[in-house]
Each structure stands twice: as C-alpha cells, then as structure tokens.
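Quick one: NAD(P)-binding protein-21 from Coleophoma cylindrospora, structure tokens please.
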Amino acid sequence: MAMQVANKTAIITGAGSGINLCFARLLLNKGCNVLFADLSLRPEAEELVSRHSSAAGRAKAVFQKTDVTDWRQLERMFGTATKAFGGADIVCPGAGIYEPPWTNFWNPPGQGPSKDKIEDSRYALVDINITHPIRTTQLAISHFLAANKPGVVTHITSVAGQVPFFPTPVYVASKHAIQGFVRSLYRLEEPRGSLPKIRVNAVAPGLIKTPLWTDHPEKMKFIAEDDQGWVTPEDVAKVMLELVEGEEHVGGTILEVGKSVRKVETFMDPGPPSDKNAVHHSSSVEDDVWSDLGKQWKA
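--- reply ---
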C-alpha cells in the first residue's frame, strides 16, 4: 500500500520543531500539503510555514495552534485539513516529551516542580505520549473511512520502547505502549471488502539531536559532549517518508533509526545496539534520583 506523497495532505502534531518539523519540510518539498499542529512554532518552522502559506505552484502549509491533550483540538485538526485541503491522507501524531521535571515519575504530583495536580488524576506525560497518539489514530481511521480512501498513520516511538531505563520510567512505558499499539493495528492494511486500506507504522529513533535534548540541561547529563551516537532529525524524517512510500513497510512495521536502520522484530528481537543508539552517562542522573527519593520518602 505504498502512497506517493505528491499532491497529498499530512497532519503532523508537534511540527513546530525537531523530527516533526523535518518531516513536514521533507513532505512540503515533495509536493505534499502540511497542517502544522503544535502549541507554537520555532523560528525556522515559522519561516517554513510562511514560505508555503500562499505561493502558487508549491505545496501549502497551515498552522493550527493545538494542545494535543485536548481532544476537541485534535478533532479540529481534521476539520481544518478538510477545509484547507479537502482532507488528510497522512497523519503523524508526533508530539511527545521526554519526562521533564514538571511531569515526571520521580517528582510526584503535589511535590517539587511537578505541575501534575492530584485533583486532576492524570499525568501530562501520559496524555501527550500515549493518549494523544491513540486518540489521533482513532480520528484518522474515522476520517479515512468516511472519505473511503486509503491513509497512513506514522508514529514516533523510540529505542526506549525496547529497553528499560531507570531514570525515565514513564517515558519508557509510553514508548513500549505505542510500539504495542502500532503492532496491534497491522491488519488495517489487509483487504477487507470495500473498506480502504489503512497503514499504521512507526519509527523508533535512538539519540536524535533535537531541542527535546539540547534545550534541556538535565537531559544532556545523560550524554557525553563528544558522543558519537547522535543522529540528525533529517535522517529520521527520511525513514518516515520510506514508511509512507515504501511498499515493503506494511502496517505494524517499526523501523529503528540510529547510525543504521533496521526493522524491530515482534519476537526475539536482539534490541538496539547499545554502543550506537542509547544514552551512556546515566550514573550521575541515577544518583540524583536516589537523592530525591531520600528527600521525599525519608529513606
């Protein structure tokens, strides 16, 4: 079910920066319209949207300010895509966060820098990393079925979906969840009467040099300054395009993206190569976790 992206339309959450911005730029350059759904745009994203907002003869870009934890705003993305472009063909629920202090397992709700409120009975990280991509996929499937046309949903998971990592357990859990979710939807691409085929797959990046890391000193503690494991977001965007356009990348496919690209097997997978795709300097961060535990629970 390969889909050529020219003259198609994509909805991308988190398109204001990082991997999602690079994917949006790549799609626009190949003639695919893009709806940028994010809370805000970094300057380079603003420039890209402005350049593709009205010029004749090129793919168009539209920005919709979107809080992905609000289901009504997720629904509005599809309405905006329909009004602006006649509908969507490709959906990437790419927005995600890497266990920041304000929604973090080691900073419980009601303590420290956490902004999660006990009275709300929810974690923002779970809303963003798990609930939002699940709900967006539901909406995408309904959109494709209503239009009776094929569609592609490409998720962004992580090598953290294959391995445990003590300092960021909720992030790890979220990526395990999305990998299981993507695999479980593989049959949507199989022929079934007159229903359109829908492909759901994912990339699983390792260390990617994006603002998700570089703008957060607490996260950069995990990585040596001369770490050779970095991969560019442009590299990941190219693999995401392959997932859309490649005939062989059927539903349920998860491609790990590090210094090399490989398919993550459902069973008996060897896991990511630790010398290339993983963080290496976790001891100091683990020390901080133990220190926080001692303060919070008087251990």
